[in-house]
Design a protein that fits this description.
By secondary structure, the chain is mostly helical. Helices cover 69% and strands 0% of the residues. The protein has a single domain, classed as Rhopdopsin 7-helix transmembrane proteins (Up-down Bundle). It has seven helices and no strands. It starts with a helix and ends with a helix.
């Protein structure tokens, strides 16, 4: 169940902010953040997207905790993923300030910024933590390289995201695109791990040792 929740959450989040961003009048997906879809009369769509995705990621994190019950990443990995889920849920109702990620000024914007910062901090760390487990686990070794690459892309992307918020630099008009690269990379990683987890859980269920 947790594996399916992770895959569903990843697809839901990216699909909603992509389609809604395309339909939102005057919205620029290259220059505006995903959170800015929460602004306006139909902002509840993105608010709900945050909450539902967060709930699904939280379920995914619990599924990871159940599967990785011992060994490397058994505590830190699921904790980080569940923390991302909780932060997505909490950030939704607190609407962002326009064109702000790290420089929120209103009370609700600052709360949104705090939980957003947790998401963007925990995301690369979760990849690096699980990489330690995957490179040593034969069942998960095929995911090790992709996990390490995702962590590196996320880390570099977050640095660029911070730089892009400084008006006057060449990346300012591309900050929305930079953020989307980060979000799509992480959600693709969640989907891939969820897919692998579902497959391994099915194999475990049909194993003669398990049935015995």
């Amino acid at each position: 169940m947790g594996a399916v929740a992770g895959m569903a959450g990843a697809v839901l989040f990216v699909s909603v902010f992509t389609v809604y961003g395309w339909l939102y009048p005057g919205y620029s997906w290259t220059g505006m953040f995903v959170s800015e879809l929460s602004l306006g009369s139909y902002g509840w769509v993105q608010v709900l997207n945050f909450v539902l995705t967060g709930a699904l990621v939280l379920m995914f994190g619990r599924g990871l905790a159940a599967y990785f019950s011992a060994g490397a990443a058994s505590l830190a990995g699921p904790f980080l993923v569940q923390g991302i889920g909780v932060s997505l849920i909490a950030s939704g109702p607190f609407v962002t300030d326009p064109s702000a990620m790290f420089g929120q000024t209103s009370p609700h914007g600052m709360v949104h910024g705090i939980f957003g910062a947790i998401v963007f901090t925990f995301a690369p760390f979760s990849c690096f933590v699980f990489y330690r487990r995957f490179r040593r686990d034969p069942a998960w070794r095929p995911m090790a390289g992709w996990t390490l690459l995702s962590g590196v892309v996320l880390t570099l992307g977050i640095v660029l995201l911070k730089i892009s918020q400084q008006p006057g630099n060449g990346l300012f008009e591309w900050k929305g695109l930079v953020q989307r690269v980060i979000l799509v990379t992480f959600m693709a990683w969640i989907f891939a791990i969820g897919f692998r987890l579902r497959r391994l859980c099915r194999l475990r269920e049909h194993s003669p040792l398990t049935r015995a």
